[in-house]
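Notes on consecutive records. When two proteins share a document, each keeps its own sequence and its own token line. Never mix them. Below: protein one.
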Amino acid sequence: MKNEAESYLKSGSNEVRILEYKVSGISFGINILKVNKIVADLHLQTNVPESHASVRGIFEDRGLIIPIIDLAHFLGLPPVDTSQHNKVIITEFFEVSAGFMAERVEWIHHFKWEDVIDSNNVMGEFDNRFVLGMVKPTEDHIISLLDYEAIILDLSPKLRLRQKAATAHIEFDGGGRKILVAEDSASVRAMLVAELGEFGFEVDAVGDGKEALKRLKGTDYFMVLSDVEMPQMDGLALLATIRDNNAGCDPNIPVVVYSSIGDMGMKKRAEFLRANAHVTKLNIPELLEKVRELADNEVAAPKKARKPKTKKLEPVG
């Protein structure tokens, strides 16, 4: 599956392939770039002291200990019948491995990110913090796309604390420079706004690449920090649009790709599209160091020479 994931995605194509699976009879989807493998009939070690109630157990895979998350329990859905031959989707992002229990795996669908419906446009004021968007393979079939980053952060609050502690030694002042953040996960978006704000940056944050393009037009941003997976327009398509001088801003504006997908294929795509850096979520210290480096380069860069103004002489007599 990993080879298929790496082969299909053309840089900046705004394409995504979604693996559909069922939990409590409901269809959910996950980007196949986040899927490591699918396994069945695991022999779990269930005695895990002080673990979250939604962590069903752990298992070992080639020396790696992987927690298994009961999505039905986490999302408040009817329990899954564990007597059946259930599947476990092993994921890897945030440089963290986790397994999500599913009743069955259905199919891989091919979409454009512009086909993804923002859940806020459907759910309105209802609580939907773990649903980012929806796709419709057919008119009467809906697949919900979960905010897996928010789920992992909710289950592992120590991840946030470790990142916070790791930035304690970093000192610099952003000097009020404006940064545009494009990130669909509300949890990660809030974290970035808080972290960058503490270092003296003025941060605007949007939930997708299309909205980021609107903000870029006519606004003097110092840099763009973009996720990859986003509804309407993903981060690679946003980067390609900027570099092709189709965004209404300086095509050379620094762009840092900040993605939970940290494999070499994603890094190469970002490099090919002339991103200034690719940083894996949640590596906040590396991100801040890269932002500081770009800020230092901006200060050190020679200013463009201006033509001296000349006064037009009026004819005498």
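Protein two starts on the next line and is unrelated to protein one.
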Amino acid sequence: MFDLSPEDITEGSLARALLALAAPLLVQNLVQVVQQVVDLFWLGRLSSAAVAAVGLALPVVALLFAFTITAPYVGTQVLVSQRIGGDDVTAARRTAATGLGLALALGAVGGLVLWAGARPLTELLTLARGGAGGDVTRLATTYLGVIALGLPFAAASDAVEGAFIGWGDSRAPLYVSIATVGTNLALDPVLIFGVGPVPALEVQGAALATIAGYAAGFALALALALRGRNGGMYSRAAARFDHDELRELLDVGAPVAGQSAVRQVVRVLIVAVAFAAGGAAGLAAYTVGARIASIAFIPALGLQQATQSVVGQNLGAERSERARRATYLGVTIAAVGLGIIGVIQWLVPTVIATAFAPELTERALAFSVDYLRILAYGYPAIGVAYIFEAGFNGARRTRTSFVATVLQFWAVRLPIAAGAGVALGVGVGAVFWAVTISNITAAVGLAIYYRYETSSGMLERATERAAAD
């Protein structure tokens, strides 16, 4: 049912191609989010300080992920998809090998930076030098220092997964994610609370379980690739360093890495704003909302990855009109799916919040309920924005997605959150509304610009470039 050939993607039913490719990716993303939520689930049974500490640490981790993981992952996926669509398997293998090498190098450097900068970053975010951070800063520093060790495994695993998805194989990344999260799930309660001779490591234990999952996932990803899946994605000849291939991969992937970095820098700043506007209760609520929202985003993320591959392969096969139709079909599916999820979240926010973090204080729970309802209004817009970005990315227009994100986060979200939430004294509620307003603004802007660019020949030009490579 989920087996797709290049001909299925470039000649068959677009709806089937999108959904068959997206379904395993949707489950994969669900599994990955479980990895994040499981820490919240167990740490929420320790204290609000533990939840707030992980909330403080995760945007910092995500920022490093943006610099180390995103470029090789997206660059590999887009270029492999176009080359498989154009029936150039040799070039696809060269891209896959280049992406893996780049990911390992960036992961090692990023891990070192994170390990060395954990304490200064958390002190800066909580103003701990002035005495505001306390236990939150100490626990967040511990979490970041351990996570740094697993960054090379996470980066390399994602690069291999990007090659799989570009090939049209979305089941292999699902298997990798199951191995990653299964390891985390098994170790989390043991390392956090202690079992038998294993001591209770609390926040440090959560981080150790996470990096063990990264290592298990990379081991499986490499094993699947080396066993010859998809006719052999890696070869000794493709493993040689190719400067031109690296430059092209970075040309596609670097803007998306920049886009992710822009998002995460603002999210790190928003964490500080939420702490300033609402204290530990506001930060805990923001953390709970962000974790729950990450589950709601799963359909859009899976469909975004599928759309990028479908668009890329169709452009590689010189079928620009199918690429355009695939984007609009994906937009419709994502908007409807996230709209339904938003309605459910709006109706039962208290049940959802207490299920994930039952030890929240009364004030933190009240903030969490408000945030979950405010987030729900913008869920359809998130789906629309993600899929239009996929339409641009599949055409190698990743700089467009980068600019859209800069405007969304720096021109809309941060000014509203900091200006109204702190400067004007509105409180943490302004931070919550800033997120939803920026999501809706991004969706509307991307929709208008995508229609303008496609009517001006963007996809036809992308087809010509793919054919020339």
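For the record: Residues 6-468 form one domain.
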